[in-house]
Amino acid sequence: MDRAAVASGERPGAKPPTPVPAHSRELSGSELYEVSCSACHGPKGGGVEGLVPPLAGNATLASGEPEYLIQTICNGVRAEESRTGAGMPPFNQKLSNGQIAALSTYVRDIAGNTDSPIEAENAACERRASTPGEE
Ligand code: HEC
Q: Where in this protein does the record put region Disordered (predicted)?
């Protein structure tokens, strides 16, 4: 037994972990949901009784045009305007059209509408001209 190797914690053949660079690829809709939405709406979109509406199985979101869903993500909901008195932040400065499209597709999916994916050009937020990055 090589006591020096044991003491230093060396393991023969162990490779150093390969770091995964941040933003090396596009995040999927479910990953975007986990990062941006799950803290309030719940990991599975179940919401918080009386405070945050559920997204999973939400008939309003599943039916008709995705415009309401997209605009809610873009603009958020101010607490004083909200039904529950709890607010939701706007995401128009944080997410690109492509990310909002992927996210909306995922949310519509868990709401119960599995239509074809929402395209980025249909998920445009009005962004101020000073918005860094994409228009
Ligand atoms: C800080 C907490 C919070 C975060 C983060 C948040 N929301 Fe919300 N969201 C709310 C609240 C509170 C409401 C309900 C406001 C009201 O009472 O009308 C809401 C409402 C909604 C609605 C409307 C639901 C309906 O039945 O009318 C949608 C859609 C929605 N959120 C999607 C999202 C998505 C997608 C994300 C992630 C990008 C997100 N929310 C992030 C708190 C949050």
A: 1-26
What domains can be seen in the chain, in order of their start residue?
26-122 (1.10.760.10)
pLDDT digits (tens, 9 = 90+) for 27-53: 999 999 999 999 999 999 999 999 999
Ligand 1 lining (C-beta closer than 6 Å): 36-37, 39-41, 52-53, 55, 58, 60-61, 69, 72-73, 77, 82-84, 86, 88-89, 91, 103, 107
What letter would DSSP give residue 27? P
Q: Which residue has the tokens 């990310």?
A: 99
Report if pTM > 0.85: no
Q: List pLDDT tens digits, range 63-114.
A: 989 999 999 999 999 999 999 999 999 999 999 999 999 999 999 999 999 9
